[in-house]
Amino acid sequence: MAKSKLNLEDSLNEEFNLLAIHTDLIDYRLAYFLNKKLGLNLSRKTFDLNFVNSKASFSVFEYIDEENLLKWNLISNIYNHNFTEKSENSDLFTSSNELIKKFNLLAEYENVNYLLKVDKNEIQIDLDDISKKIKSIPQIITLYNINKDLKNKEHLIFL
Question: How far out from the chain centre does Cα 51 lie?
Answer without folding.
Answer: 13
